Amino acid sequence: MPEGPSIIIAKEKMAEFIGYKVIAAAGNAKIDMPRLEDKKLLDIKTWGKHLLLCFEGFTIRVHFLLFGTYRINETKEALLRLGLTFSNGEINIYTAAVKVLEGDINSHYNWSADVMHPQWNEKAAIEKLTDKPDMMICDALLEQDIFSGVGNIIKNEVLYRVYVHPESRTGNIPEKKLKEIADQARKYSFDFLKWKNEGTLKKHWLAHTKKNCSRCDLPMYKEYTGTKKRRSFFCTNCQELY
Ligand SMILES: [Zn+2]
Question: In the CATH hierarchy, which fold is given to the domain comprising 112-234?
Answer without folding.
Answer: Helicase, Ruva Protein; domain 3 (1.10.8)
